[in-house]
Structures are given as structure tokens and as C-alpha cells.
Amino acid sequence: MATDKQQLANALKHHFGFDKFKGNQEAIIANLMDGKDTFVLMPTGGGKSLCYQLPAMLMPGTAIVISPLIALMKNQVDAVRNYSEDDIVAHFMNSSLNRQAIDQVKEDVRSGHTKLLYVAPESLNKDENVEFLRSVKISFYAVDEAHCISEWGHDFRPEYRRIRPLINEIGQRPIIALTATATPKVQHDIQKNLGILGCTVFKSSFNRENLYYEIRPKTKNVDSDILRFILNHKGKSGIIYCLSRKKVEELAEFLSINGVKALPYHAGMDGPTRSANQDAFLLENVDVIVATIAFGMGIDKPDVRFVIHYDIPKSLEGYYQETGRAGRDGGEGICITYYSAKDLQKMEKFMQGKTGAEQEIGRQLLAETASYAESAICRRKTLLHYFGEDFADDSCGNCDNCINPKKRVEAKEDLLAAIETVTALKEKFKAEHVVNVMRGRVTADVKSYGHDALDVFGCCESMDERYLNALIKQAVIEGYLEKDIENYGTLHVTAQGKKYYKHPVSFKVVEDNDFSQDEEEIVVKGGASCAVDPELYNILKDLRKKVAKRLEVPPYVVFQDFSLEAMATTYPITIEELGNITGVGIGKAKRYGDEFVRVIKQHVEDNEIERPEDLRIRNIANKSKQKIAVIQAIDRRVPLDELAEAHGLEFNELLDEIEAIMYSGSKINLQYYINDVIDQDVQDELFQYFKQTEHDDLKAAIAELGDDYTEEEIRLMHIKFLSELGY
Questions:
Q1: Which candidate in 329, 605, 644, 724 could, as Cys together with 649 as Cys, close a disulfide (CB 3.0–4.6 Å)?
Q2: 308-320, pLDDT tens digit by residue?
Q3: Overall fold of domain 5-203
């Protein structure tokens, strides 16, 4: 018998105070109350929780909600209790409860007054809990964060695979599975593993029109860039996600000493502190929470105004879910992510302990994330396509790529070549291999398969790899090619692609953004990052050139580009403030800084720039014992080879450490060691080279000088040169 709509509307008002349902909520609830298995794909902020909370209130018995995180359970139980007169309406049962508390929960459930019981999959797996649940009346099972079932999901939990067998053991009732992020492959995995392939499926659009998406290059000044952004959005709530617990702690401390109300949150903290920090954010006692991805699942805070990713997430599902915590009330939601190819390389290393299949899945998810970050086409279009949804427009007008579009170029012939190559390869290879064949690159795989003998080999040999990757991505998004996710991303020609090959029309593509440089080398030019003042940046570059010419030194000796970028971000107007800039230090600030702070101060006054005291960047003291020990050893003139051995470092690793110390603003005097290992004439030649060159590219210097000098000699003299003239 169909559920009465008016009764549902009255119940919604009575239990939760809402006048009307959002999106598919009403149909989902009616379907579940009619005893039908239900699958719900609804973006963060769409109101998933209500889809099982309201039916639980109306149906006889207790709804069992399987949820992955203790923090998530506590938050949702508190939310339900806030709508009810009696706290026992909702309970959770997990490892955070002692025996007495668990016994009380069971007693309340048996009494029939508890309508929602949240359990972790691990708790559900215990024999005593299975036995207990068999003895109570269950209304239905709700599997929250259902993507955890699939190894293709962004948060795979093996315990979720046991849910269906446990339900069979406890007693079958209707199942509702809910997730905010699932590709078509993950959706099928969820339904198959829960045994609900014949369920009613409800999909809401993934398009969050109010969210602004931006990818920024990850430079050395990312901390200062984030601080600048937050101070420009003072008093607004935000979440910053970092991959490591160490970075969470460091960044939270850095923001705090610069006047931002910020707290850390990660799984390594003790439970009471973690809960207190979460509550402080929810109660708006702090503005910013710096967290690992352990934070935020199910957190019902509608007015988060920005979500910043310090590190690119491991998958687009994770990225979409975490950015989805911004602007849940439909208001402003700014989503900024810092991207460096180095981060992806680190993540690949972390996967080395996993099985071959898990590593391959992880690599493919990382590749999709990198593809999204580097793409210069509409972010929204790319995201929606990934989740199986078409975004008809070429521009959303609310992402960095659409606000600052790149020129599109005609690519009809290149697309035909790509279709022909995929066909010639019998649709059995991934994009990387297809691009290698098109460019005529004889890699080990190309050679072993004999693909260097194909007619299509080298058909686009003059084309740039980045351009061809962009071509293939956009051909996939437009439906001419498709990736077979079951076979780890092999490319196939679609029916639409075959039709296009017979009757080609104009096809324009835009080349990907270039993030291939090392983060140390990335320079923000002309204000590419909205935190940098482009006018001031150019003024400072001109001043640096003038000062360098007067002193007869290369410009980078005065201040490096990344230091100028930081100055154009934080507006230092005293020597003390300038000394806090990355790559400067107080000694260098006193040596070169007077003219620079005068120019910056004048620019601030002329343009009436609000420069609150908070913009004076205060850096956390470097607490590395190794760095301190290295500095002290150099002061005592310990030979560097002995110093490296004492710290268990390769010699080149010690030089990395010394360079980092020097770039942080400390003067390093290695003359005692240089005199022992480098002839005076070689010292003079290399010193003169660095004085005459216009760049500070150590890699280029090694490549240029490598035939005549050792890398060790070049690096040692580079340190000597910068220490004598730059610091």
C-alpha cells in the first residue's frame, strides 16, 4: 500500500520542523516505507540522513544504521536527539562505550523507545551483538557511506563486505544504501555486494552550482597563501585538509600564531581533545579546522564557506565529498586545492605495501585526480562526467578554468588520428600507451607488442604529450572515446566516435595547465594566484633588477622569485616583517631590504590596501634537531663527509639539508671544507659563473657544467656564492 503524501508531510513538520522535502527525499522515504530496497546517490548537503531518519520515526521497530566513523555517529545521534523530547530515541553502539553504557543501550532498544541505532560494521560483526539484534524488532537497515563497500571507492573498508551475510544472519528487512560519491562502477559494486541489484535507484544531480572550484600550483609559499586567503575571509568557517598528521599540527599552529582561530583534528589525537576541537568548530568558537580526511563525514554544518586542500586528494570521489562540505546551505562555497606532481609520486610510494590489484586501482584513481587538476576545461564538466552525469554547457562560469579560459585550438585531424590509433591497438591499451604510439616513442611496451611497426606509429610525432593527453581526455568527455574502468582504464571507441570518424566535424580542444615544474621552481607570474598582488609583484621585480645592476650581482642573489611573490602577498613594511619572508631571513633583510619595504609601504598607502597586523607572517621556529645539529657542526668546522656519516645521510642528502637551511635565511660558511676539496682556480671559475648567470637554476648549472666539474663541486660553490653575496 502506497505511503500517504500528506501523512509524510505532516510527519516531516512534526519530527523535524521542515515545511517541505528536498529533491527526491519524499519519493525515497515512501519507497523505503513500502518495504522496498532503496539505493540513494545524493551529493553532500542534499539531505541523505533524513531519508532514513524520518522513516525510522514512523515505522515499527528500530532502524539499524551502519556507519563507518565514531565521530559521525555521535554527531548524527546528537542531531536526532535535538529534534526529540527524549534522548533514548537514538543511540550508537561502538568501541567508545564501556560495558555499562552498552547494556543501557540494549535495554533502551528492547523497550521499543529507540528508533535509530547506529553501529560500526566492526561492532555488527561481534557474535554477542548479532545475537542481541536477532532478539529485537528491526524496521530496516541503512548503510551510510555505502561507497566504503567498493575497493574502487575512495574509502574502501573490508568490513563493509560482511554486511550482507550479517543481515542474512540477523534477519532480513528492507535495505537503504546511501552515498554522496560513487562512479557508475562503484554504484554497481554497492548494489551487488548488498544483494539489492533489483532495488529502486534514486540519483540526484552532482552539480553544486554554488561551489567555486580552483586548482593552484603548490609553491613554497602555500602556507602564507592560505593565511592571506583566510584573512581576506575573516570570521568565515572553513576546513583545511592535509594528508599528514604532522602537517595538520604545523599548519594549525602557524595559523594560530598569525591570529586565526584554528584547531587541528586527526586520528592520532586523544579522543576527548579530538571531540572538543570538533565541537569548538561546530559551535563557532573557532573559525578554521585543519584536519586529515578523518574529519567531516556527516558533520552537519551548513555554513562552511571554504574548503582548502593543502594536498591533492587520492581520488576524485574523496575530492568531491570533501569539497561538498562547503556551502551546504546553498550560500558561498569556495574550494581551493594546491597541486604538485610530487604529491602524487609520494602517494604512489605509500601504495607499495598493497596487493597488485589494489595498487593498480590506486594508481588509476590518482591518474584521474591528476587529469582533473591539470585539465584546462571546465572543472564542473569534468567532475560531473566522472560521476556519469553530462553537463551540457562548455563553461560553468564558476571555476578557475572558466573564469580565465585558455584558447581553444582546432583538433579535428588529431582526434581522427586518436580514434584510428585506439582502433589499431584493438582497444586494449590505456591513454599513456596510445599517446606513446601516436608520438612515435619506442618504449619497452611499444617495442614488446610490436606497435612501432603499425601504420599509426608516429602519426602525431610533432605533438606535445600534454596536448595529446588533453585531446584524449576531452574526447572521452565528449563521448567519442570511453575508458573501460573494469580493465583499468583501457580506451575504446564509442558508437559516437565511430560515427565521427566517418563524418568528422570541427573539434576544438584546450591544452592542459602545466604543473610539471618542481614546486621550488613554480613562480606566480602576473598574479596567477589570486592571493598575489600582480602590480606590486612587477614593481618589486623591477626594483630587484635595478638593485642587482647597481651591486653587479644577478637579480636572484638579491631576492629569489618566490620571496618576491611572498612580499606581494603579505605586504611587509618593516625590516622585521621582511625577515619573516621565506628565503629572506633577518640578515638579508637588513642587507637589501630598505628600498623594498619603502616601495611596499608606498604601494599600500597609494592603493589604500587594508593591511591588518595579522598579515605580518609569523613563522614557527624550526624545531628540527638535525638542522640545529648541522648548523652547530658547521660552526665547529666538522668535515662534511664526517657530518653526513654521523647523521646517516648520503652526501647529496646533507647538501639538500644545508641548502634548505640557507634558503630559510641562515648564513652558512663552508669555506673551511671547500678549501680542502676544491682547488682555488676551480673555486674562482665556478664563483665567476654564478656571478654572471642570470638564473638560479641549479639543475641547469649542473647540466651546463657537468663535463668539467663534479656535481659536488658545483653545489658547494653555489652554497658559498649565495652565502657570501645573498645572505
A1: 644
A2: 999 988 888 889 9
A3: Rossmann fold (3.40.50)
